[in-house]
Design goal:
The chain has helices at 5-9, 61-74, 92-100, 114-147, 156-169, 222-257, 262-271, 292-297, 327-340, 355-370, 384-390, 396-414, 418-427, 432-439, 443-457, 464-479, and strands at residues 17-18, 32-35, 49-53, 78-82, 105-108, 173-177, 180-184, 196-200, 210-214, 280-286, 308-312, 315-321, 346-349, 376-377. The protein is α/β, with parallel strands linked by helices and 480 residues long. The strands form three sheets. It has a five-stranded mixed sheet, with helices on both faces. The protein has a five-stranded mixed sheet with strand order 11-12-10-13-14. It has a four-stranded antiparallel sheet with strand order 7-6-9-8, covered by helices on one side. 35% of the residues are buried. Residues 418-475 form the PucR C-terminal helix-turn-helix domain.
Length: 480
C-alpha cells in the first residue's frame, strides 16, 4: 500500500505535527522524499514528493513565500520543515503562504532525522513495488495455467487464456487472425478503433493477427505478457494444423492413388475422421506458390469445423460431409475469407459421393473445376476425365504420356507449337478459322500443323474418336 502524509503523521516514532490547514493531499501517495535547502527547488522536483527543508536559506518572509509557491507549482504533496536548526519553529510567513496555496506543512522536531522519514518512505515504496511484482507474477502464472488447462483441445486453452485476461482487465477482448474472429468474450462484438484498442500480435506470419480490448480497461502489465502467450500458442496451433493436414493428406493421397489395400481404406479414412460410408465432397484450394505455406497452416472459419482439412501436393483440400450442405455458398465463404487474408485463391468444388471411389471422383472434379481459375468453380457432374482418373485400374497418366510425348519432344527440339495448336484446336471445337485467328496464323499453317500432329501421335484431330483420345490426354496431362 502507498505511504501518505497521514501515514507519517500517525507514526508516533516520528513525532510529526500537521501545522497547515490543507488536508486534500494528506492521503495522496508520496512518490519520494526530496531534501533541499535551495530557495527554488522546483527544477529538481517531478511531482508527488515530500519536500524536506530546515529553511537554512529562508531567512526572510519573501523568500519563504517564494519557496512555498515553487513547491506548490512542482506538484509536491507537502513540506516537511525541520525545527531546531535554522529556525526554532515553522516561520509564520511560510505557514500562511502554504495555507493560501493548500500545501500541507509538517513540523519535524530536532530529534527526528530526515533520514528516518526517507527510509520509511523508501521501505514502503519498495514493499509496494514487490507487492506489484508478486501480483504481476501471480497473474502471469494464472494466464499460463489457463493456457495449459485440460480443456486446451481445439483452441480451448487459448479461449481459457483470453477469458482469464478478460477478467483481469475488466473488459471484453476479441482475437482476430486472417481477418476472422477466432475468439470473442462477448459473441457478436465488432471491434472498432473508436471504442477498442488494437494490440498487434506477432506470429511470424503475415496474418494481421490482432488482440482487441474494449476501452476502458485495466492494464497492470498483463496485456503484454498475454500477447506473448497468444503469439506462442498461435504459432503452436499453426504447426499442429500443418502436421494434422499433412497426415490427413498422406492418407487421402494413398486413397486417391489406389495405393492402399481395399480392406485398409475404410479404417485409414476413419483414422483421420472421414466417414467413407457417408457422402462426402471435396473443396480444393489452389493458391500462388508463395502463399501455400501460409494456406497449409491457417485457421479456417467456424463454418468448416465439421470438415477435415488436408494438404495434397501443396494444395489444401477440405473434405466435408455432404448432408444438408450448400457447397457453392460454403465455397464462396471460403473464397472471400482467403481473399480477405490476402491469398488470391481459386476454390474448386467436387461432387458429393460415398466410398473411396467417391472421394477420388470428387477430388478430380474439384481439381478440374479449380483449373478454370475463377474464385469459385462448380464441377461438371461426373466428368469423364474425373471418372477415368479416379479409377486406379485405368493407366491414364501413361496413356497421356504415350499419346502426347512425341509432340512435347518435337516442340522441344524444333521450337514448334504443336501442343499449343492442338489445345487451341480442341478448345475452339475444330474451327480452322478460329484457331488461325487466335494464334495469328494462316489457315494453311494450321492445316500443316494438324497433319504433323496426326503423323507424330497416330491420332487425327479431325476424326471424332481420335479427337476424344487427344482431348483426354490433354486433360489428364493438365490435371496430373
Amino acid at each position: 500500500m502507498s505511504i501518505t502524509l497521514r501515514t507519517l503523521l500517525d507514526d508516533p516514532s516520528l513525532a510529526l505535527k500537521n501545522l497547515g490547514s490543507a488536508a486534500k493531499t494528506l492521503d495522496s501517495a508520496i512518490a519520494w522524499v526530496a531534501v533541499t535547502e535551495l530557495e527554488n527547488p522546483q527544477p529538481f522536483l517531478s511531482g508527488a514528493e515530500l519536500v524536506l527543508t530546515t529553511g537554512a536559506r529562508l531567512n526572510t518572509a519573501a523568500a519563504q513565500r517564494v519557496f512555498v509557491r515553487q513547491v506548490q507549482r512542482s506538484g509536491a504533496v507537502g513540506i516537511g520543515f525541520g525545527t531546531g536548526l535554522g529556525h526554532d519553529s515553522v516561520p509564520q510567513a511560510l505557514l500562511a503562504e502554504a495555507n493560501r496555496w493548500a500545501v500541507p506543512v509538517l513540523e519535524i522536531p530536532y530529534q527526528t532525522p530526515f533520514l528516518a522519514i526517507g527510509k520509511l518512505v523508501a521501505d514502503a515504496l519498495s514493499t509496494e513495488h514487490y507487492a506489484k511484482l508478486e501480483g504481476l507474477l501471480a497473474a502471469h502464472q494464472l494466464l499460463v495455467q489457463s493456457l495449459l488447462s485440460s480443456s486446451a483441445g481445439n483452441g480451448g486453452g487459448l479461449a481459457s487464456l483470453l477469458g482469464t485476461l478478460r477478467t483481469m482487465v475488466g473488459a471484453d477482448v476479441v482475437l482476430e487472425q486472417f481477418h476472422a474472429q477466432i475468439f470473442s468474450s462477448t459473441p457478436g462484438s465488432v471491434p472498432d478503433d473508436d471504442h477498442w484498442l488494437p494490440v498487434p500480435v506477432p506470429t511470424g506470419k503475415r496474418d494481421a493477427c490482432t488482440l482487441w480490448l474494449r476501452k476502458p480497461f485495466r492494464d497492470n502489465g498483463v496485456v503484454d505478457y498475454a500477447k506473448s502467450l497468444v503469439s506462442v500458442e498461435l504459432a503452436n496451433q499453426v504447426q499442429r494444423r500443418q502436421d494434422s493436414r499433412q497426415l490427413a493428406g498422406q492418407v487421402l493421397q494413398d486413397v486417391l492413388r489406389g495405393a492402399l489395400p481395399e480392406a485398409d481404406i475404410a479404417a485409414r479414412l476413419r483414422g483421420v475422421q472421414i466417414d467413407p460410408s457417408a457422402k462426402n465432397l471435396i473443396l480444393l484450394v489452389t493458391a500462388p506458390e508463395r502463399k501455400r505455406s501460409v494456406l497449409a497452416g491457417m485457421v479456417l472459419p467456424p463454418a468448416f469445423d465439421a470438415g477435415i482439412a488436408a494438404v495434397v501436393e501443396d494444395e489444401l483440400l477440405v473434405v466435408l460431409p455432404a448432408s444438408g450442405l450448400n457447397a457453392v455458398s460454403l465455397a464462396g465463404k471460403l473464397s472471400r475469407y482467403l481473399h480477405g487474408a490476402g491469398i488470391p485463391a481459386s476454390v474448386g468444388i467436387g461432387g458429393a459421393y460415398a466410398q473411396a471411389n467417391g472421394l477420388r471422383w470428387s477430388y478430380f472434379e474439384a481439381r478440374e473445376a479449380a483449373g478454370r481459375g475463377l474464385e469459385v468453380n462448380e464441377p461438371e457432374r461426373l466428368s469423364l476425365t474425373s471418372l477415368l482418373l479416379a479409377s486406379e485400374d485405368v493407366p491414364m497418366a501413361d496413356m497421356a504420356t504415350e499419346t502426347l510425348g512425341p509432340l512435347v519432344q518435337f516442340d522441344a527440339e524444333h521450337g514448334s507449337e504443336l501442343m499449343l495448336t492442338l489445345e487451341s484446336y480442341l478448345q475452339l471445337n475444330g474451327s480452322l478459322a478460329a484457331v488461325a485467328d487466335s494464334l495469328s496464323l494462316h489457315r494453311n499453317t494450321v492445316r500443316y500443323r494438324l497433319t504433323q500432329i496426326a503423323e507424330l501421335t497416330g491420332f487425327d484431330p479431325a476424326t471424332t474418336a481420335d479427337r476424344v483420345q487427344l482431348w483426354l490426354a490433354l486433360s489428364v496431362r493438365r490435371l496430373s
